[in-house]
């Protein structure tokens, strides 16, 4: 960043209103200086201060919003340095030359290939709509069809008039207009400004990309996505590394934008595409475009993306709450554990395998496992009791029995005092023993 937190603070309104989501203006200024938030989150900053702060507070890779999908905002080269911010978008390619059966199949795949893992829904994010017929009306019809989905949209045509027709059909969806090239950059910029859309820049190499981003930035287009033009995997990865290094290490603003890549044009079949996409997700691609979606190829990419874009400084956590398993009723057992995601999935999996209807209480311990949370004082008698009283489980069951993890047996005495009227049962130490325990357990 070009300014320190204190320098930024002096230009803020200093009201400590909290409207930005941070308690004080000083804390907000420090987050701006570290590239952890955006100036736009402060609704009270003056226009004069905004002009001074805008460039200084922007992260090395400019954030770009495409519909509901966000990319960019990155501040580091390597995940372990801090964290990566915006997970790579996975886009499915559809065209206006497809027949109804093929188009419906692809849209169904986009809608239905969704997975639950670690308490999160994993799915593809965008539809890349390519105009192949050269007919603005046909392309607008395709865009209208796709606006009925929950996908963010990428509109693809060399012809600005077709992009304009698509942008009108996608009013309110804020699609990415692609590509702006040496030939059509001025016209695409005009369409983007008219409809308030971000622009995808395609160059024949990085030098051409730099010239285009500078031209479009000068024309007032602030949100850009870069395509270096590489369609061979080795070259594409090299370009991704060069672009990210220039943005993060050199603060070279003409390359300080997220990227879009096209594995759909890098292989002979879906396996080749998947391998290319996996490599590009690992090396900085903001968006990867695939020619088709299949569970056996999409799911590994989604899991890879999730693993890369989790914060290494924070354990993966499941949302606190009551989780019914095997359709429990009022007389079903109640068990409790921590919200460390691995703990949740192992425990819930064993309960499900037991076929015993049960209530599983997941308590927020900041993502710590049972023993670690107990040692840190986050999974002890008073905190557990407070959660049990407030979570509402007492209204769902007719008994007052609670099964705690065997490794937390030491808290049973305190818990009995805190939860008056409840019977505290010490469960097995290992989750693998839960099925046998539950089959014999009586409330």
How would you briefly describe this protein structure?
The chain is 39% helix and 17% strand.
Q: What would you say this structure looks like, in words?
A:
- With 443 residues, this protein is of the alpha/beta class.
- The protein folds into three domains: 5-57, 3-methyladenine DNA Glycosylase II, Chain A, domain 3 (Orthogonal Bundle), CATH 1.10.15; 64-308, TIM Barrel (Alpha-Beta Barrel); 321-440, Rossmann fold (3-Layer(aba) Sandwich), CATH 3.40.50.
- The protein is 39% helix and 17% strand.
- The chain contains 16 helices and 17 strands.
- Strands 10-9-8-7-6-3-12-11 form an eight-stranded parallel β-sheet. The protein has a three-stranded mixed β-sheet with strand order 13-15-14, with helices on both faces. A two-stranded antiparallel sheet has the order 1-2.
- Helix 12 packs across helix 16 (434-440).
- 42% of the residues are buried.
Order of strands, widest sheet? 10-9-8-7-6-3-12-11
How many β-strand stretches? 17
Q: What is the beta-strand fraction?
A: 15-25%
CATH architecture descriptor name of the largest domain: Alpha-Beta Barrel
How far is it from the N-terminal to the C-terminal residue, by CA? 60 Å
Q: How confident is the prediction overall: mean pLDDT?
A: 93
Compute the number of helices: 16
- Uncertain regions: pLDDT < 50 for 5+ in a row? none
Q: What radius of gyration results from the CA coordinates? A: 26 Å
Largest sheet: 8 strands, parallel
- The level 1 CATH classification of the largest domain is Alpha Beta
CATH topology of the largest domain: TIM Barrel
Query: Per the principal axes of the C-alpha atoms, what is the gross shape?
Result: globular
Number of domains: 3
What class, by secondary structure content?
A: alpha/beta
Helicity, in percent? 25-40%
């Amino acid at each position: 960043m070009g300014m320190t937190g204190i320098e930024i603070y002096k230009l803020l309104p200093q009201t400590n209103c909290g409207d930005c989501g941070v308690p004080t203006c000083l804390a907000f200024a420090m987050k701006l200086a570290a590239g952890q938030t955006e100036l736009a989150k402060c609704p009270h900053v003056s226009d004069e201060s905004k002009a001074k702060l805008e460039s200084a507070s922007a992260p090395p890779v400019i954030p770009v919003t495409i519909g509901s999908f966000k990319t960019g905002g990155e501040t580091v080269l390597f995940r372990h340095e801090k964290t990566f911010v915006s997970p790579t978008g996975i886009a499915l390619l559809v065209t206006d030359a497809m027949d109804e059966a093929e188009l419906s199949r692809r849209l169904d795949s986009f809608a239905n290939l969704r997975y639950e893992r670690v308490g999160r829904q994993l799915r593809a994010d965008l539809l890349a709509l390519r105009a192949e017929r050269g007919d603005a009306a046909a392309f607008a019809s395709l865009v209208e069809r796709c606006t009925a989905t929950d996908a963010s949209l990428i509109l693809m045509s060399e012809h600005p008039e077709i992009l304009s027709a698509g942008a009108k059909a996608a009013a309110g969806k804020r699609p990415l207009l692609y590509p702006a090239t040496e030939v059509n950059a001025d016209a695409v910029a005009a369409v983007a400004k008219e409809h308030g859309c971000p622009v995808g820049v395609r160059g024949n190499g990085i030098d051409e990309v730099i010239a285009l981003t500078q031209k479009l930035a000068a024309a007032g287009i602030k949100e850009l996505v870069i395509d270096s033009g590489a369609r061979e995997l080795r070259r594409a990865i090299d370009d991704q590394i060069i672009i990210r290094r220039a943005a993060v290490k050199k603060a070279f603003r003409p390359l300080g934008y997220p990227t879009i890549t096209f594995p759909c044009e890098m292989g002979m079949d879906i396996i080749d595409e998947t391998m290319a996409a996996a490599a590009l997700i690992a090396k900085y691609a903001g968006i990867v475009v695939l020619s088709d979606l299949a569970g056996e190829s999409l799911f590994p990419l989604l899991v890879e993306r999730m693993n890369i874009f989790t914060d290494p400084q924070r354990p993966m956590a499941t949302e606190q709450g009551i989780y019914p398993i095997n359709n429990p009723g009022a007389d079903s057992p109640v068990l409790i554990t921590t919200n460390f995601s691995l703990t949740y999935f192992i425990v819930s999996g064993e309960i499900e395998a037991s076929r015993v209807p049960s209530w599983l209480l997941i308590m927020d311990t900041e993502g710590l496992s049972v023993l670690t949370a107990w040692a840190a004082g986050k999974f002890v008698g008073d905190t557990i009791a407070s959660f049990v009283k407030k979570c509402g489980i007492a209204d769902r069951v007719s008994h007052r029995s609670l099964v705690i993890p065997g490794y937390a047996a030491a808290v049973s005495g305190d818990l009995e005092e805190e939860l008056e009227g409840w019977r505290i049962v010490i469960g097995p130490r290992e989750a693998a023993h839960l099925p046998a325990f539950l089959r014999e357990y009586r409330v």
